[in-house]
Amino acid sequence: MDGRSYSPAMSENPSRRPRITLGVEVRETPVGDVLYAASADHVLSVHSSAPVRVACPASLSRDVRTRGVLNLVPAGVSETWIDDDAGATVDLRLPHSLLQRAAEDMGLDPDRVGLEPKHHFRDEHIEHIGWAMEAEYRADFPNGLLYRESLGLALAARLLARYRGQVEVRGGLATPQLQRVTEYVEAHLEGDLSLTRLSRVAGVSASHFKTLFKRSVGVPVHEYVIQRRVERARALLLRGGVPTGQVALEAGFSHQSHMARHMRRVLGVTPGAIVRSRA
C-alpha cells in the first residue's frame, strides 16, 4: 500500500447538505494473502496491473485476474484471496447511505436494498468509474466533492440496476443482513460498535435496526456486543501469554475493571478465576 487514501468521511466543503462521497484507495497487493476486512462500506476492487494468478480459499477456485476485473465485497462482509503474483488494485468504497440515496431516486425502498458478493466479473461502466477515481486520486482530487458524489451515485445506480440483493425486513433482519452484522461485530470487537455504525452495516435506520436485531437474536444489540466481547476475553485469557489489562483492550473493553464487571455478570466468574483455571 502506498500510504495515501481518500475517506468518504473527509469533507472540505462546508455546504449545507453534507456530501456523501465515493472513497478510493490505490494499493499494491503483495504475494500471499490479500484481506478485505468487513467494513461499513461496500467495496469494489478494480484490478489495475498486469495479470495476477489468484486463488479463493472459500470456493477452492483459481483464476487469472486481468486489468479491469472486478470484485464486489458488500458492507459487513470480509473476503480473503491468495495472490501468486504481486499486483495493484483501485478500491472504491461506497457508503451504504449513498446506495440508499440512489435507491430513493430510482423509486426503490432504501431500507430493502442491498448487494450480494460477486467475484471476478467485468462491467465496462464500473470500470470507467474506477479509472476516473484513480485519476482523481493521483491528481489529489482536483474536481472536488461534488464530482466524487456524482461518480458515487452513478456507481450506486449501476450496482442497484445490475447486482441488487433484496433485503426483507418484516419479521427481523434478513439472513444476509444478520450475517453481515454478526461478522462485522466479530471483526471489530476492539473498535467502535455503536448502534449507528451497526445499523449502517445492516442498511437500515438506527431505530429500525434496534427492533429488527432484537427480533432476530433475542437480545438487544448492546447486550449482544457485550456477550461477544466477554467471550473473546475469555478465549484470550484461556490462551494465556497476554496481560489481563491488554486482554481487556483487545476484547473491546475500556479497562480491566470494565471487563471484570461484565464478565461476572455474563459468566458468573472473574478474569482471575479464568486465568487460574488454566493451571
TrEMBL record:
TM spans (from-to): none
GO molecular function: DNA-binding transcription factor activity; sequence-specific DNA binding
InterPro entries in UniProt: AraC_XylS_family_regulators, Homeodomain-like_sf, HTH_AraC
Domain HTH araC/xylS-type: 179-277
Keywords: DNA-binding, Transcription, Transcription regulation
Pfam family name, one: HTH_18
UniProt name for this protein: AraC family transcriptional regulator
Source organism (scientific name): Myxococcus stipitatus (strain DSM 14675 / JCM 12634 / Mx s8)
Phylogenetic lineage: Bacteria, Pseudomonadati, Myxococcota, Myxococcia, Myxococcales
